[in-house]
Amino acid sequence: MLHEIPKEEILEKLKNIGAKKVLIQSPEGLRREAEELAEFLEKNEIEVILHGEINYGACDPADHEARLLGCDALIHLGHSFMMLSLEVPTIFVPAFAKVNVVEALKKNLHEIKKLGKKIIVTTTAQHIHQLERAIEYLKSQGFEPVVGRGDNRVSWPSQVLGCNFSVAKVEGDGILFIGSGTFHPLGLALATGKRVLAVNPYSGDCQWINELAERFIRKRWAQIAKAMDAKRFGVVISTKRGQLRLNEAKRIIKLLKDHGREAKLIAMNDISYSKLEGFSFDAYVIVACPRVPIDDYENWRKPVLTPREVEILLGLREEYIFDEIPGGVREKDEPLGISLHSTR
Amino acid sequence: MLHEIPKEEILEKLKNIGAKKVLIQSPEGLRREAEELAEFLEKNEIEVILHGEINYGACDPADHEARLLGCDALIHLGHSFMMLSLEVPTIFVPAFAKVNVVEALKKNLHEIKKLGKKIIVTTTAQHIHQLERAIEYLKSQGFEPVVGRGDNRVSWPSQVLGCNFSVAKVEGDGILFIGSGTFHPLGLALATGKRVLAVNPYSGDCQWINELAERFIRKRWAQIAKAMDAKRFGVVISTKRGQLRLNEAKRIIKLLKDHGREAKLIAMNDISYSKLEGFSFDAYVIVACPRVPIDDYENWRKPVLTPREVEILLGLREEYIFDEIPGGVREKDEPLGISLHSTR
């Protein structure tokens, strides 16, 4: 197992709240851990249902499903709490990776130095438990690392989501991203305009992101161009509560109508083109998770844009801007471990 | 448009209940009609959201989503009401096909006669509005047509669903099915053991089903054989309210455990194998819509069974039996047109 689930601790929390029947929700990478946890809880007389839907983030807790299924608690594996009201008490179990972040920084010190001295340090929830050690190490090497607090869509300072780069909007020479994949560092580059170096603690490699970001923007301009003559737009929102941006969708629909286009509001849960094929829209705008139009556009036979790209399409904006979902002011950080959030 | 949606009538009903904002839910075949209805309602000052999820039946009304999205009514296109409690007032708009059923019966009279004199007449919701004419015609040709009342999972006498063949469980020489596709007549043959002739009013063709049913049973036995050595079973239920068979799933889990197998309960909305790939189960049992394991099994890389097939697997049943979802006693039939159902 790549991730260790604190089973005893979860059981104790369940006993504290008197939960007898729980739903376990998991992302694709934690399916085996979910099964193992189910096994353990069942041996301890807790009735368990595994949630079969794949979860992509704390923006989509299955608390409603838990209540519907008669469960008195939800266990949400893989993510920390996001500010949402919940229908049943929910235990959030973030998954911290067991790779050594400082080793990867050491290996790439030469490149990191090119960022400058005052570097904004960012990472994902998987590595947040090693942030302090990373900061110490960077300080020992003469850097002045900057940790951005961010808003309440994230759980901790320095944490980025695919839809929120608020922690990087601080002063600094350049951005160090610690984590895997290109989506987060790409978002960082686009959301801040700063130089971004991504250090991957799994592979030990690093990658400069800004050239990638330029290629990305060219691709997005091509999508915008393809939608230029579209007359009828489907503006898609998601019923996943942490992605439900109804007001933003209404703003986009008004913009489109004010500029002589037609637009209809479409609501769904998991957004995919195959479900929409029967409709006759010329183009789509996704006002939900920004990853949908950006990561998945090759599977769409119609142009598919972010709300920000619609502003460009209509001539209301010149510079490319990344679609983010902002939060409010965060009162306190989440614990670096499991946390129980009650209904309100 | 293949189907005519009674737009004015729907608008009137919405005005009667004071609805200002509605969600329109539609099956794949009625997407354009949904758009057209949205256009019409918007022109009449009703705010509209289109539901982007594909709907497969009245077993899955989007009333919860409607409430979540702040709508004060749901319009459910394509199906009549199924006995479920609703979170917002819902207008059910069945879709009646414009093909001529009697013409198709005339064309296939020679084959229909082979069924015998006392024939059980069955059809789907699409053709139910022509049932009376079909009965009259059959009587005029010397038949003694039998119309089964069925239970309250269906809306009208003679109506079959993919999960309910209660209308056919009456006395008669053989079964006449009027409709398209092979799933319903296959279910009729398997649920009753009677000879079934399917007359397709779209193509005008007819097909004897019983040979198909034998081939089908052989395929299902092959699935059962593939699962024979499976140790760990995922027993899958759906959160679609009209498919939520929690007690049946618990019965199956108990049966499996009593016979030395392991079993875990999995809940999801749309059931598909791709979402379950990360789990380590050896085989799956679908305790939801019977079409999932039967129509879709080729997309599963693990054996996938119905609850009834588990009984065969465990040696508790010898004869093949179709998985049905039974209803209770129906108090009255649904109207042959739109109907408004309130929250209770």
From TrEMBL, chains A, B:
Pathway named in the protein's UniProt entry: Protein modification; peptidyl-diphthamide biosynthesis
Pfam families for this protein: Diphthamide_syn
GO annotation, biological process: protein histidyl modification to diphthamide
Coiled coil: none
Transmembrane segments: none
Keywords: 4Fe-4S, Iron, Iron-sulfur, Metal-binding, S-adenosyl-L-methionine, Transferase
Alphabetized GO MF terms: 2-(3-amino-3-carboxypropyl)histidine synthase activity; 4 iron, 4 sulfur cluster binding; metal ion binding
Cofactor(s) listed in the protein's UniProt record: [4Fe-4S] cluster
Enzyme Commission designation: 2.5.1.108
Domain of life: Archaea
Reactions this protein catalyses: L-histidyl-[translation elongation factor 2] + S-adenosyl-L-methionine = 2-[(3S)-amino-3-carboxypropyl]-L-histidyl-[translation elongation factor 2] + S-methyl-5'-thioadenosine + H(+)
Function, in words: Catalyzes the first step of diphthamide biosynthesis, i.e. the transfer of the 3-amino-3-carboxypropyl group from S-adenosyl-L-methionine (SAM) to the C2 position of the imidazole ring of the target histidine residue in translation elongation factor 2 (EF-2).
Family membership noted in the UniProt record: Belongs to the DPH1/DPH2 family.
Record-given protein name: 2-(3-amino-3-carboxypropyl)histidine synthase
Organism (species): Pyrococcus furiosus (strain ATCC 43587 / DSM 3638 / JCM 8422 / Vc1)
Taxonomic path: Archaea, Methanobacteriati, Methanobacteriota, Thermococci, Thermococcales
